[in-house]
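Q: What structure does this chain adopt?
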Amino acid sequence: RRRDEPQWTRELRRAALDAYRTQPFPNPSMELWRRTDFGALPLGSLEPYADGAPARNLDDLPALLLERLHGEASHVGIVAQRNSEVTLEQTHPSLALRGVVLCSLERALRDHADLVRAHLGTLIDLNHDKFAALAALLRSGGAFLYVPDGRDVEIPIRFFQWMDAAGAIAAPHNLVVIGENSRVTVVEELLGETLPRPAFHCGATEVFVGAGSKLIYATLQDWGRHAFHYSNQRARLDRGAELQWVQTVLGGRRVKTNSYFHLEGAGAQAFVHGFAFGDTTQHFDQHTLQKHVTDHTTSDLLIKAALRDRARSIYQGLIQVYEGAQRTDAYQANRNLLLSDKARADSIPGLEILANDVRCTHGATIGQLDAEQVYYLMARGLTRREAERLIVEGFFEPVLARIPLENVANQLRQEIEKKVGP
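A:
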């Protein structure tokens, strides 16, 4: 009511409340929560709707966000959120001239209600689990991007989420709608420094890629060590659409992501690349679904993880081929590098195929540093730590090379270097 939301969105929140009430707190008896425990999350004591002070201009953004822009601020479109509120919306003249809409989701509910209503909440099932319902119930902030048919958007779109309120819940919802035969690049960054009390990011992203369009979407997460992170990402691809999806996980205390890709049009292609790097006692759980609904679709997924100290990663993925989805070509791989004898990686790839003319493969590897590689580098003057850093950087480089902005990729390389250590 305070935000003067339309009646239909209030009904969505009521439906989310009903779903939330009827579902148990995530626990090991649930298949997708068997290896991940959010029991230490003090949900009852956290505060939703932590405000973020409005930013009059880019100079009011936190220094860490400005570092990520690295002099590009005048050549990008930006939606920046602080805690539960969007604090800055910056479009670009070239976007407006081409009919591209970039704003907060709240503004889109007022100014583009019909477009939002046709898409919001259609890809994420409220009964997926309790946190999916909570995200819809407490939805606040998030970015909205609409690209009309036949637009080649040359400047990148940047979404930022910044959390600096201890004891808060942030539940942003991003909605991206790409028309037919269009091109655009989106880079989303989730950032925050370590705080003395836990906080919870409970977010959602829905992406619609129209026929013949190409979207590059990169999600880069580097929360502080106090943060619990839960998110659902869904993408639907129409006929001949192409999605390049990059997902990196570096921060947070406990992390659970569910990234599902629905290939619903013939000729659709999804290329998914991601990595996680954990240390101390960080816990990362990534679940993916490559859903091939119709014929002649392609998906190619590679997720990598490196782990130090007592860190743990879980990757669980499924390639699902519907009946009649002939000539599907799908690949799924998970590679894990253990840098400590106390680190642990679990890998559970899977196939569910109901068509008989397909090519679907999956695989997983878990191993430690190659002693011969370390010896080879040390024999050429590197210290052991330098040799390990070089091997880890090489392990991640195929994913880093797919980051659409070079300065962002370089920032990630610096974060990897910090985790490997001096």
